[in-house]
């Protein structure tokens, strides 16, 4: 019995090495300095980057997002700071990402190209942005999403057929 245990113990270091290698294989996050002051966690399907509450300008934000082009991304969360005055044209262009959340900022301006070129998006969350109008100008670029969250805004009207570009929509959150 003791001999058995000893035998297994001698394999323990190799087993630990194997486990470490497996854990590293699932590492998608870029090095900290690449995305600082944003932070990153490894999801099973890609990097989950949070730039929430990190004060920075739209230009700084765009630069960081640009450095994520070659990263396998699952989620990106931007917001929680007042300086995000706009979502510039092409900010997410080329980015392949499952879920994008822009939240808790003060009504950033957006145009037709703000979300142009984003790939693989399934979920778009734009909550707490103090928007008074539905941001339909961006809808053609994100019309393939299945989950659209527009909660905690200040919409006063919902024009007819405003969500008609979304042909795959499964859930819409407005409240
Ligand atoms: C992404 O990869 C391409 C091809 O290897 C490279 O030219 C480009 O500089 C990379 N972009 C970033 C932001 O790392």
UniProtKB/TrEMBL annotation:
Keyword tRNA-binding in record: no
Signal sequence segment: 1-25
Sorted UniProt keywords: Signal
Domain of life: Eukaryota
Gene3D superfamilies found in the cross-reference section: Ribonuclease Inhibitor (3.80.10.10)
Protein name per Swiss-Prot or TrEMBL: Leucine-rich repeat transmembrane neuronal protein 4-like
Name of the coding gene: LOC106819518
């Amino acid at each position: 019995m003791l001999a058995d245990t000893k035998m297994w113990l001698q394999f323990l270091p190799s087993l630990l090495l194997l486990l470490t290698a497996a854990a590293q294989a699932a590492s998608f996050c870029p090095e900290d300095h690449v995305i600082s002051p944003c932070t990153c966690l490894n999801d099973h399907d890609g990097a989950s980057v949070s730039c929430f509450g990190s004060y920075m300008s739209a230009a700084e934000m765009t630069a960081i997002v640009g450095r994520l082009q070659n990263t396998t991304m699952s989620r990106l969360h931007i917001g929680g700071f007042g300086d995000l005055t706009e979502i510039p044209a092409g900010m997410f262009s080329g980015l392949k990402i499952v879920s994008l959340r822009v939240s808790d900022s003060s009504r950033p301006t957006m145009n037709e190209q703000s979300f142009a070129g984003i790939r693989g998006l399934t979920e778009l969350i734009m909550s707490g942005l103090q928007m008074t109008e539905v941001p339909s100008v961006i809808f053609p670029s994100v019309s393939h999403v299945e989950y659209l969250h527009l909660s905690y805004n200040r919409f006063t009207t919902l024009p007819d057929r405003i969500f008609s570009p979304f042909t795959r929509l499964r859930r819409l959150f407005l409240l």
